[in-house]
Amino acid sequence: MLKSSSGRQEDSSTERVERSPDHKAMCSFWWGLLLSCLGCGVLPGAWAQFPRVCMTVDSLVSKECCPPLGAEQASVCGSQEGRGRCTEVQADTRPWSGPYFLRNRDDRERWPRKFFNRTCKCTGNFAGYNCGDCKFGWTGPNCDRKKPPVVRKNIHSLTPQEREQFLGALDLAKNTIHPDYVITTQHWLGLLGPKKTQPQIANCSIYDFFVWLHYYSVRDTLLGPGRPYKAIDFSHQGPAFVTWHRYHLLWLERDLQRLIGNESFALPYWNFATGRNECDVCTDQLLGAARQDDPTLISQNSRFSSWEIVCDSLDDYNRRVTLCNGTHEGLLRRNQVGRNGERLPSLKDIQDCLSLQKFDNPPFFQNATFSFRNALEGFDKADGTLDSQVMNLHNLVHSFLNGTSALPHSAANDPIFVVLHSFTDAIFDEWMRRFNPPTDAWPQELAPIGHNRMHNMVPFFPSVTNEEFFLTADQLGYRYAVDLPVEETPSWTMNLSVVMGMLVALVGLFVLVAFLQYRGLRKEYTPLMETRVNNKRYTEEA
Question: Which of 72, 67, 39 is nearest to 55 (CA)?
Fold first, then answer.
């Protein structure tokens, strides 16, 4: 749901991510190519949500994406520098559950093997489609130095300079062509075009690429004209909700760091747990107030008033059996009028969610109860309340914002999405630090498609599993300046404790009775619960 085929090009700062000199030279080459092609919606020789160098007919037909690092063509995947090698893509085959029961009908199954089955496998802390980057949290020419963590702050506590840097970076990203990636505009079977000679891809901006990734993860399965299969979602309604959105934000954060030339730049968060019926980041100083003449639009005093959305016409794509191609589809909207008296979550809602010790519970779907993940996502409440009307935390905030934010396929168009999900991730990180869950707290199988622990997250490339991001944030190179204490024991937890105490007492009573019965039989006494009234005295022989 993202991508701007007609965004204006602006010069960006040189990339500051640790890369080899040859790789930097190659990036400069691609920037030059992009600058010369800005007037074109489709880029020859580029590729969809994959590295440009692999979007050729030969690469797509061979299903191999193992580009060289730098100018030396023999150094495939940086092999000559010991960074990586070209290997078979691993895609987990354990069974999934959930409402998607089709097989081999969706190009996201066993991601990304419908597109490429051989890619670069990087060694050590190297990362990237050609092993030219470092993993998140690492830096240096050999990616062997721990990077000082960037600090994600409350958006309301940013200095004027930090606030302008963040807002300016978003706006620049909305209007700057992505240097490395483009998007697919056709289903995988039509990816090479009608004559099988032209990859069907389109140019997009950095921010629109961020939106498109989210759209692609939730889009319907295309079975034919007007025949979508809707019961599928790779980034919601399952355990991967937390890791998918974490990686999504990390990707954007790194893109923005490179764009503005500042490695210490960090995305802020919006603490939405105010319990109020107003949006305190919906101001012209932050992410845009409502227009006076049309409250569903953004104030013209905000830089976001001119933002146009992409990937909003899901029904149209389904009818035409095609994908979002990044065409602008109207202005960004928030429908404050349609909130029906809703209020944002409260601090107690967060405390109750953080009290849940189980990461997730079967069936690992939107109907899981007493599940931290499902309560955070918002389909469940911490006390197990689960019905069609329940909206909690993350889901409630999207519903509250309404407009563009209300639908998963278009929600990332609104820049509030960034700070909303940053705080959602902060809650996830707090839970991880409190409970330090083992890896096997995440189900290996029988979660919905895309949500098993070792499933590759769709549509990120190169492939990355859910397990790799089931970590505390400091292990990934960032942390939050936030304090989320548990100030009180939730009432439902106290009630549960009372019930459990009563059950334990009853079990103890039955054990005691059984013991007395056993002892009485051994002493040839009549058990207490079987006594009959007789005339014998207590001291007399039976």
Answer: 67
Q: Taking every pair of C-alpha atoms in the chain, what is the biggest distance, in angstroms?
A: 111
Tell me, what DSSP letter sits at residue 243? Answer: H
Ranges assigned E (strand) in 141-200: 145-146, 150-152, 183-184
- Residue 531 pLDDT > 60, yes or no? no
CA dist., res. 134 & res. 15, Å (int)? 13
Q: In 3D, which of 134, 205, 211 has the Cα closest to residue 169?
A: 205
**What CA–CA distance (Å, rounded) separates 534 from 143?**
88
Residue type at position 475: Q
Which pair of tokens denotes residue 497? 């404790």
For every residue of 291-333, which 3-state class applies, written as one string? CCCCCCEECCCCHHHHCECCCCCHHHHHHHCCCCCCCCCCECE
Q: pLDDT digits over 433-487, tens only? A: 999 999 999 999 999 999 999 999 999 999 999 999 999 999 999 999 998 866 5
Q: Classify 144 as helix, strand or coil.
A: coil
Most confident of 217-226, 338-347, 516-525: 217-226
d(CA 13, CA 20): 17
* pTM of the model as a whole: 0.82
CA atoms within 13 A on the CB side of 399: 18
**Alpha-carbon distances, residue 300 vs 195, 285, 306, 432, 493 (angstroms):** 46, 12, 8, 41, 47
R_g over Cα of the chain = 28
